[in-house]
């Protein structure tokens, strides 16, 4: 069986999630390739060595350039901060590696386009870590829509709200600076919901009218808390959408949305039904079908079960739950199978670039106070 | 005790709701005036007589003009179809009557302005039937916001979605024609959510970017079901809002939103908390406060209880429920007390006109594909 | 149309609820008789007069004996404290009046039996105010069961928990004394759930194994708060049931169940489905059908709508809500129609007596620590 | 670092869950010992070899006796059917191994007692797989109770209902036979809820009054579906409990409870609050505190977050979800740490035996129709 040897860069918040999923994936799924946790890069050799041991990687390095060049690596997994994605991905591609990058793909649409082009020329596979769409509940939503169970989609409402920056005393970090993060809530959270919209509606966002605000204008300097530094990007944003299919949509994202801990959600209205979902109850989906008997209509709560996509690999009993790292495990199954079997991966860098275009269009629309065609964004 | 003698025009859907509330109000509340169900008008004398008997009114007439001119009437209550509101209200005002009209106030902002002006000149009191804001749960939401319990409001999301026209086989009725209804979902349902936004946010909508669609373009002619007639106004609409205070808002309305039977709802985000509500569970409000202890934060479900506004008059035990007609009963309490005590009523015709301006601004924005200042609408 | 002239005794908590329902009923329903709010009795003539005016009754008296003897009264409605039910009912029956009594029917099964017998001999109609079973959601549950939509019932779980006595500082009142209330939580709340069990399961409770406790043994004397008085009946109780049909059941009741404001609820399991309900969301019912398609099974939330029993009289749009007093209005419709049309009323005194037997059996079982056949209770 | 070498017997439903957890645990937690997936036993050498490869075990055997005797095994993990637990555990103990067994511990209390005694004499550690109590949400419930946040516990209501046998066409399997499973729903599901009761209430069940039924008396023979075989144990059971502390409790369990897919849940009432939980929403806990401000009381939905026990190891962001296998991962952390650090494990065989006694007491009580003291069961 072909090996798929992974080099992981970064073991912070999301890097740890990847590591848990790498450990779990081969036991959960009958993978098409042999997954090898080959090498791990961190900012110092010491940290890298410690993390390699605790996360189950064979080798470690304090220099990510060494990792991307290593001949025993098949795929480079980028879990470093946003501003490094581009440089790392281009270097990995230059060495002929497949690249698996966390979202957002890059700080700008232009950078993303460069990465797409480099990967295309090199003929390597790419995957972006939009893990929420890998959740079986959301795969089920897609299945229901694709089968026409709610008729034709006529409206999409999506949110990705969290409150991790709701407290004004939370110090400024890289998320709040343009040079390290690019956009604020839109880039960090909104990216997920645009990808979700593409996936679920089955059509791309064509034009947008957006608005956004920074609510907490200054935050403590993490190195000198009594000093305040300016927040450089938006705390909240929302937009009207039109999809290429003509469907109307609406999205909302915020990093200061008090009470929303994992407030990714959607309500998708069709001509004959409706789907409603919130990631805070990630193992259930609500489904309404207008064709049900009079007097017996209503939203039905579907609990994930063995009939639904990818759930049975974790547990064959219905309703037994599904966890955050489990959806990443599905993503890694896709990665390994795609590389081993030579089949396409999605969401790939091109999708990452498309999402970036929509986000930039929203930001531009908010500035110009008018609708923007996504195609205008280069 | 001063009498408040009511003349009710129209006993269809909402007229019956008024009649139930009139019957209930004097027993529920210690009213400041003596409510008298004096006269009722319907389209024929026979129907009027039958309805007066079953709804408990003293007299009946088949001619509303007789009612508005009757000297024994203090307030004219207009529950006729939208296109008649203006004519009836102006006639009532001309006879010096107070006017209580169902929403939307008129078919156009211009008409609404005329009604406001006539009432102002005549010095009569006016009230518009935005009954959802009278629900104790929503009054509680306002109280929580006004007391600063969720900090400063930073975002408003509101919906009024229903599915009463979701079935394409449902025949065309007056709601779907411009000359009888004006706007579609926006006028019928959106009006409530704009009024709600004004009430809860405590600031008026200043500008909007809207979008709208007619999804079911033709419907059966009710008189010849095999013939299809064009639907003349929108099935669904949504908009971004900016309030005068600078707060960002978003609304959504639809009459074909499968599964939403009474889908009026809101999520109001503040700097230190959040409120969430849906009219389908009209006796509960969800409240999140970010200052709660770490590890003990979460949305709390408040059931209406005697400490909350206007609930105790119906039942002094908490959580015992609240019904659709009960909120209209609160509205009628306001009407009677306002007239008897000479105190102001709200939402008055001016608010009806303001709501109309916002709705027209949304429709214009959808057409022009740009933000519209509400002040531009005359 | 035949008149149904009501004499109401008591205008406290539940008496006010009756009064609101009397005001509402003739407008909501096309009653088969003409409901007349004829006379009202309270503890003093002054209070009676005040209440008659505010509650819309024609006459008032400070002596309930005068009311039960009045020739212009057709039905006596007893909303006085429990310990008076028997004396008042027997007096009313002696004057040939129909009797409508609040629950629990009497302080003991023996007293209840006497009342049943007196009514039977006099040939008068009786009704007990088990209003929760009149709620359209619960009527819908019964309809679903009766039609076999969940197969054969195999298990009943019912609760009526509240927390009105949860605070130990709440003074002792008549609910806590044997001579004025008889049983504690069982009598006040448990009565509802036993009646509900009979209604929904469609079979009577045949035997019980119960347990009960007084948790707060002493409470402040309301007249001298620093003095503590003993609580004489149970704060909480629960029991296993066997119905005559062989079905297993379980109930739970408490007046100190923190957080349950109106915690009447049930879960009814059938061989092919399940129904779940809580009175705190009194306008919705959850329904599961095991025959639904694989992968599309789940509990469906049914909102009350015009297809459901008795809802349309209040509002013809689905999901618009239903209130506490509305279910009493349904009960009063039953009362008036039953008397005017000469048709049977239910739950009648016999059902009140049957419920009392079950409650006494639970109390006896708790004492003897063994199963008790309900028939043993006389 | 000390090695903890595991020998796993059985890779069916729950064995796979263990295997996923073994893969995940060392990456999720900083374990105190080095976990080694040393050997796996299945019913044939071929199956064992295949499973060892896919589940990541070093060695395989078709003979579990070889595994329990292997000198390179520190702990034997028994995931075989119930009727084999005793024999395997005694053999493992005879070889001085620690034993980690799935529930129920044995087919009878007597067998369980023998296992407890053997382990005690051998001085080996034991752990029973009551994984639901390892879920952070339930650990949080325990923490809240232990800190007195809901006052003194006064009532426990617990369920473990599922519907895996609801369909009468589901063939008879070992769960339905006395010689292979012992009890039915009580043994398979009820065991969890009794353990949960002990854990959460902090007191042991002292006496019970139970009832039970077999609803589907015959099921198809899996080898000849047209032939029906008798079901030998109960489909549903429920019981009243008294804890040693005097607290009243109630439990309910069923394997034919239509619609309950993972219907383990509890409502725990205290003198100053209440906790409510259902495993179908395993990442949230509802908490009510009676001391909250008047008008601001209500059940609060706590989403698991980094402040709660054991959640942060999986994800440091609140509300991001928790899965079925994750709670088993917590259990395995306890196993490895307990063995490596020499600290006590819980729930151990003694707890397994205590649970067995309660279950047998319920079954005996159902037969005798009277309360049974748990101590009577030997």
From TrEMBL, chains A, B, C, D:
The keyword Oxidoreductase applies. Keywords: Oxidoreductase. InterPro entries: Gfo/Idh/MocA-like_OxRdtase_N, Gfo/Idh/MocA_oxidrdct_glycsds, GFO_IDH_MocA-like_dom, NAD(P)-bd_dom_sf. The keyword Transmembrane does not apply. Pfam families: GFO_IDH_MocA, GFO_IDH_MocA_C3. Residues 4-130 form the Gfo/Idh/MocA-like oxidoreductase N-terminal domain. Residues 139-275 form the GFO/IDH/MocA-like oxidoreductase domain. PANTHER family: BCDNA.GH03377 (PTHR43818:SF11). This is Gfo/Idh/MocA family oxidoreductase. The lineage of its organism: Bacteria, Pseudomonadati, Pseudomonadota, Gammaproteobacteria, Aeromonadales.
């Amino acid at each position: 069986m072909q090996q798929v040897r992974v080099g992981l860069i970064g073991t912070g918040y999301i890097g740890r999630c990847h590591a848990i999923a790498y450990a779990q994936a081969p036991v959960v799924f009958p993978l098409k390739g042999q997954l090898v946790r080959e090498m791990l890069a961190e900012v110092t050799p010491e940290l890298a060595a410690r993390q390699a041991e605790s996360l189950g990687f064979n080798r470690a390095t304090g220099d990510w350039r060494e990792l991307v060049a290593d001949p025993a690596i098949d795929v480079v997994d980028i879990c470093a901060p946003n501003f490094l994605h581009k440089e790392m991905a281009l270097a990995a591609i230059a060495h002929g590696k497949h690249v698996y990058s966390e979202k957002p793909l890059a700080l700008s649409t232009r950078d993303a386009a460069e990465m797409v082009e480099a990967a295309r020329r090199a003929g390597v596979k790419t995957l972006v870590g939009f893990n929420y769409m890998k959740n079986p509940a959301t795969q089920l939503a897609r299945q229901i829509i694709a089968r026409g169970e709610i008729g034709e989609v006529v409206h999409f409402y999506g949110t990705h709200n969290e409150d991790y920056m709701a407290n004004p005393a939370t110090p400024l970090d890289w998320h709040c600076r343009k040079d390290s993060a690019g956009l604020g809530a839109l880039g960090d959270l909104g990216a997920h919901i645009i990808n979700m919209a593409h996936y679920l509606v089955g059509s791309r966002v064509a034009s947008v009218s957006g608005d956004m605000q920074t609510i907490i204008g200054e935050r403590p300097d993490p190195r000198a808390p009594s000093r305040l530094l300016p927040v450089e990007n938006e705390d909240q944003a929302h937009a009207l959408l039109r999809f290429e299919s003509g469907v109307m949509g609406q999205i909302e994202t915020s990093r200061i949305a008090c009470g929303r801990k994992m407030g990714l959600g959607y309500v998708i209205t069709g001509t004959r039904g409706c789907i409603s979902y919130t990631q805070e109850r990630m193992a259930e989906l609500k489904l309404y079908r207008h064709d049900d008997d009079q007097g017996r209509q209503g939203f039905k709560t579907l609990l994930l079960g063995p009939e639904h996509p990818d759930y049975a690999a974790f547990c064959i009993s219905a309703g037994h739950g599904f966890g955050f790292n489990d959806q990443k495990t599905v993503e890694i199954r896709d990665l390994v199978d795609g590389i081993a079997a030579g089949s396409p991966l999605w969401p790939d860098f091109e999708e990452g670039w498309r999402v970036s275009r929509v986000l930039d269009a929203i930001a531009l629309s908010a500035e110009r106070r008018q609708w923007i065609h996504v195609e205008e964004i280069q």
